[in-house]
Design goal:
Blueprint (H helix, E strand, L loop, with lengths): L8 H9 L5 H14 L3 H4 E4 L1 H17 L10 E5 L26 H8 L3 E6 L19 E2 L2 E5 L5 H8 L6 E5 L5 H6 L3 E4 L19 E6 L2 H12 L15 E5 L9 H16 L3 E5 L5 H25 L6 H8 L6 H22 L4 E5 L8 H6 L1 H20 L3 E6 L6 E6 L4 H15 L1
Parallel strand pairs: 2-3, 2-6, 9-10, 9-11
Antiparallel strand pairs: 1-3, 4-5, 6-8, 7-8, 7-12, 11-13, 12-13
Helix pairs in contact: 2-4, 8-15, 10-11, 10-12
């Protein structure tokens, strides 16, 4: 059989439907490639060949009978190691959870399996999902596809690396402050942050449930749209006929352009020009009120994260990577009154944001203001780790704090992404904009 492992999920789904690709042979091809790949142990925490081949066998029979359950029935994908898998360890990149074996799949994994997706295994991640860098000396640090000496972005680090290296057709990750979008941007992928509450968190190891979301990391927008449908157990967004002509975008200027590095700045400027050339209007927009929630992000995230994990961390602190442990511990002394006040301020600014952006189809910004940092420097310079992690997550956090649906697209410059932000629960409309934008950036 020809090597199909470098193809996207939608292309593979069509090939299965046309009888050109056998799901079992396809899955075995991915498993063989994973097994022989030099980065296997830095990308996959665990591979599940028995499950994958059983699911692929069922997909083969459905394809032969003309009873495929979705456009991605029979397509092999990877899962971040915080989605529970029945009988297979789910440790969320942390020795705190070493040997934890769930009895049931996460609900979103059950749904995807029902839609015919094939589970290849579990990918490495930042410890307990609390870093945007992807550095994890406790388990493994996946590399950026553009620089093997640099991190791949977190916390869905292995998820992005699995797709970028052709070791999965698509991946499923989570995003609390940028954890789908950063690794997608740094590995030249499409990443979709769904609206909080759109996809179930049942059976997903939590970080901060108020902000935790599930989303796919993919080769292109069509794959992301089909993956959203598979994760929801619903029809995928219709992308036909999407165009940028007459569309109106806001280019956010508040905070997201501060201290931006040269490469992301150049990539962003070039992307805006391409959108204009494709018929879109791009208008600069300042929403100074978002500085409040951005300043409150420390307590909003750390208070909830410490409430979730503080007891476990105090019981076994030495097994954690110190910078991650210290980030959790920053929430230890948070006062309930301060946290509640920060939540109230965030909700008030969400209303301001909604009014300020109502006249636009989407809001634009660079996905990350920096490029993937080198692993050695992050390990050797503790202050650099802290400041670079905060900078990395700064732009993406706007989407989480404002409760938005957001997608990042490759710009054509390595490890530089363009983000499109839309109101909550507007993923279908957002993906139509994204596919038109993808064509303009190609």
């Amino acid at each position: 059989m020809d090597d199909w492992t470098g193809k996207g999920a939608a292309q593979l789904g069509r090939a299965i439907g046309a009888g050109k690709v056998d799901p079992v042979e396809l899955t075995q091809g991915f498993l063989d490639k994973i097994d022989s790949h030099p980065l296997r142990d830095r990308i996959y925490a665990r591979v599940t060949p028995e499950r994958a081949l059983a699911e692929a066998g069922a997909a083969r029979e459905r394809a032969r009978a003309g009873q495929r359950r979705s456009p991605l029935d029979g397509v092999p994908v990877s899962w971040k190691d915080l989605f529970d898998t029945s009988g297979v360890a789910t440790e969320a990149g942390s020795a705190l959870l070493k040997g934890r074996v769930p009895e049931a799949d996460a609900r979103v994994l059950r749904t995807a399996t029902t839609m015919g997706l094939v589970c290849l295994g579990k990918t490495h991640m930042s410890e307990l999902a609390f870093s945007g860098l992807g550095l994890n000396p406790v388990t493994a640090t996946p590399p950026s596809v553009n620089d093997p000496d640099a991190v791949s972005g977190g916390s869905s680090s292995g998820a992005a690396a699995s797709v970028a290296n052709g070791l999965a057709a698509a991946a499923v990750g989570s995003d609390t402050g940028g954890s789908v979008r950063i690794p997608s941007a740094w590995n030249d992928l499409v990443g979709l942050k769904t609206t909080s509450g759109r996809l179930s968190l049942e059976g997903v190891v939590p970080l901060a449930a108020r902000f935790d979301t599930v989303g796919p990391l993919c080769r292109n927008v069509e794959d992301a749209a089909l993956m959203l449908g598979a994760l929801e157990g619903a029809p995928a967004p219709d992308l036909e006929g999407a165009s940028l002509k007459g569309r109106r975008f806001a280019a956010l200027t508040t905070i997201v352009m501060d201290d931006i590095r040269d490469e992301p700045a150049s990539a962003y400027a070039a992307a805006l020009e391409r959108l204009r050339a494709a018929g879109a209007e791009v208008v600069e927009l300042d929403v100074p009120e978002i500085a409040g929630p951005m300043g409150d992000a420390g307590i909003l995230y750390t208070a909830e994260a410490w409430a979730t994990w503080g007891k476990a961390i105090d019981a076994n602190p030495d097994v954690m990577f110190a910078p991650i442990r210290e980030r959790f511990a920053a929430g230890r002394e948070a006062l309930a009154a301060d946290y509640i006040a920060a939540v109230a301020r965030m909700h008030a600014v969400q209303e301001v944001w909604a009014r300020a952006t109502a006249g636009f189809d989407a809001v634009l910004c660079p996905t990350a203001p920096n490029l993937p940092p080198k692993v050695d420097r992050l390990m050797e310079q503790g202050d650099y780790y802290v400041t670079e992690n905060l900078l990395t997550l700064r732009n993406t956090r706007v989407g989480n704090l404002m409760g938005l649906s957001t997608v990042t697209l490759p710009t054509g410059m390595p490890s530089c992404g363009l983000s499109l932000m839309a109101p909550p629960m507007e993923e279908h409309r957002l993906l139509r904009l994204a596919v038109a934008t993808e064509r303009a950036l190609a």
